[in-house]
Structure formats: structure tokens, C-alpha cells
From TrEMBL:
SUPFAM superfamilies: Cobalamin adenosyltransferase-like (SSF89028). The keyword ATP-binding applies. GO terms for molecular function: ATP binding; corrinoid adenosyltransferase activity. PANTHER family: CORRINOID ADENOSYLTRANSFERASE (PTHR12213), CORRINOID ADENOSYLTRANSFERASE MMAB (PTHR12213:SF0). Its EC number is 2.5.1.17. The keyword ATP-binding applies. Keywords: ATP-binding, Cobalamin biosynthesis, Nucleotide-binding, Transferase. It comes from Rhizobium hainanense. Pathway: Cofactor biosynthesis; adenosylcobalamin biosynthesis; adenosylcobalamin from cob(II)yrinate a,c-diamide: step 2/7. Residues 1-26 are annotated as: Disordered. GO terms for biological process: cobalamin biosynthetic process. Belongs to the Cob(I)alamin adenosyltransferase family. This is Corrinoid adenosyltransferase.
């Protein structure tokens, strides 16, 4: 198998360029480096979720996502390379449909949490939302570049990356629900406008420790 990395060391520090593989990369104090960092954080949290999964399908689904996220990061670090493809997004949409099967319809918003594995997946979902926000910001900055240095591929290269992260957060939500179901842990529905007092109708508030 051909070597893909020129070194096993961590990315350079002290303000020196960082990047994927042997190609170097952006300075640390710019939106590209910020996005790469959040994608790495997301991938790491997903790895943690895999390590404590209760639902048998979680490891296979999320390991494939981890590979996609490395592809995603490589695309970010390569200006002329698109971020993922329609095939990546299509596969994720099918995984979402499959993972949704067997779950009870939601009647109320549920609080993120539950079992340990479900909670880890919810954290991954939150980081995924942050990654999506970073990508939208980066695309907006590049879209403001002078027209003479922009091309159609420059403006469109983020299209599938945005779609992927948007669908990934949905997938992580239903996987978290499957994790709670597999662990036989009840979901906690949100109670709007709950009074935060020590005594409610003569009884102690059950949510206070």
C-alpha cells in the first residue's frame, strides 16, 4: 500500500503551517485552520461514541462517517478539490432512513443526553453543527473574494460539504435515540416554562439535587 503521509508527527506548532499529508497547509489563525480543527474534534468525538456504543449498527455507520470526514478535511486543505460528492451525501441520507426505523415518532423536543453512549453521540451532533457554521462562514469569506480570482468551482466546492454536515447532524440525532433505546434508557422530553423553584405545589422539585 502506498504511503500517504510523509511523517507520523503531529501538525507543526508555534504558528507554522499545518495541513493534511505532505502538502503543508494554512496558518493556524485563519478560518481554514479553524474548520480543520473542528472537523478533527468532530471525528474524535465520533470515535469516542463508537467506543461505548450500545446499538449494534452504530460502529459500522459511524466508522464510515469517520472516513468521510478525513476526505472532507483533505478537500479543505486542497483548494482545487471539492468537499465530498453527491455519493457521500446520498449514502448518508440512506443511513439516516435506515437508522430512523423502529423509533417512536417524536411528540416533543427531547433533552440531549440519556445513556453514556447516547450522550456521546449528542456531543458529536453539537460539534457537527459548529463545523457546519464554520464551513458556511468560510464559504462566505471566499465568496467575497474579487470576481477575477473566483471561479464557478470555487463557489460551488462547498456545496456537498454543507449538505453532508447538515444531514450528518440529523443522522447523529437518530443514532443517539437508537443508543438510548438499545440501553433501555428513557428519553426526557423538554418541559417548557417549568418553574425553577425549590417547592412546586407543596412538593420538592424532582429536578433539583
Amino acid at each position: 500500500m502506498e504511503d500517504r503521509l510523509s511523517s507520523t508527527t503531529a501538525p507543526a506548532r508555534n504558528g507554522k503551517p499545518i495541513g493534511i499529508g505532505a502538502g503543508g497547509g494554512p496558518e493556524k489563525d485563519n478560518p481554514v485552520a479553524d474548520l480543520l480543527g473542528v472537523i478533527d474534534e468532530l471525528n474524535s468525538y465520533i470515535g469516542l461514541a463508537i467506543s461505548c456504543a450500545a446499538w449494534p449498527k452504530t460502529p459500522k455507520i459511524l466508522t464510515a462517517v469517520q472516513h468521510d470526514l478525513v476526505d472532507f478535511a483533505a478537500g479543505i486543505g486542497t483548494p482545487d478539490q471539492p468537499l465530498l460528492t453527491a455519493l457521500h451525501v446520498g449514502r448518508l441520507e440512506r443511513q439516516f432512513e435506515n437508522a430512523s426505523r423502529g423509533l417512536a415518532p417524536l411528540k416533543d423536543y427531547i433533552l440531549p443526553g440519556g445513556s453514556q453512549s447516547a450522550s456521546q453521540v449528542h456531543v458529536s451532533r453539537a460539534v457537527c453543527r459548529r463545523a457546519e457554521q464554520c464551513l458556511v462562514s468560510l464559504a462566505g469569506l471566499e465568496d467575497q473574494a474579487p470576481t477575477m480570482i473566483r471561479t464557478r468551482s470555487d463557489r460551488d466546492r462547498y456545496r456537498y460539504g454543507m449538505a453532508y454536515l447538515d444531514k450528518l447532524s440529523d443522522l447523529l440525532f437518530v443514532i443517539a435515540r437508537q443508543e438510548n433505546k438499545a440501553a433501555d434508557h428513557p428519553e426526557v422530553p423538554w418541559q417548557p416554562e417549568r418553574e425553577m423553584t425549590l417547592v412546586v405545589d407543596g412538593d420538592e422539585d424532582p429536578y433539583l439535587c
